[in-house]
Amino acid sequence: MLTTMRKIGNSRGVLIPAAFLASCQIEDQVEMQLQDRQIVIKPVRRKLRDGWFGQSASEAALVHDATEAQVWSESSISDDSEWVW
């Protein structure tokens, strides 16, 4: 198939027909390599269940700690005296 290069900002691009993308199972991301003066575009294979749990446990802990610190800093308790029960 013969196609033309299109100017996109300072770069160039090629429109890839939907049938080609479907046949190669290309979705959102591709891996691009230069091999023997040729551009090779490969689909990125997602790992099974990739993204099911959103953030990693360490990322979630950091967000929780930052949120908790913000809540405590904005609380209405302003005196440093000890509480009497």
Topology at a glance:
Blueprint: E1 6-8, E2 11-13, H1 18-24, E3 30-35, E4 38-43, H2 57-73
Antiparallel strand pairs: 1-2, 3-4
Number of strands: 4
CATH class of the domain at 6-43: Mainly Beta
Structural class: alpha+beta
Task: Please count the helical segments.
Answer: 2
Reported for the largest beta sheet, the result is: 2 strands, antiparallel
Oligomer designation: single chain
What portion of the residues fall into strands of 2 or more residues?
15-25%
CATH architecture of the domain at 6-43: Ribbon
Q: Radius of gyration in whole Å, from Cα? A: 26 Å
> For the residues shown, what is the average pLDDT?
78
Share of helix among residues?
Answer: 25-40%
- Strand-and-helix sequence, N→C? EEHEEH
Question: What is the distance, rounded to the nearest whole angstrom, between the alpha carbons of the first and last residues?
Answer: 82 Å
Low-confidence stretches are none
- CATH fold call of the domain at 6-43: Pemi-like Protein 1, Chain: D
Which strand order does the major sheet show? 1-2
In short:
The chain is an alpha+beta fold.
Structural description of this entry:
The protein is an alpha+beta fold. The protein has a domain at 6-43: Pemi-like Protein 1, Chain: D, CATH 2.10.260. It is 28% helix and 21% strand. It is built from 2 helices and 4 strands; from the N terminus they run E-E-H-E-E-H. The strands form 2 sheets. Strands 1-2 form a two-stranded antiparallel ribbon. Strands 3-4 form a two-stranded antiparallel ribbon. A hairpin with a 2-residue loop joins strand 3 and strand 4 (38-43). The mean pLDDT is 78.
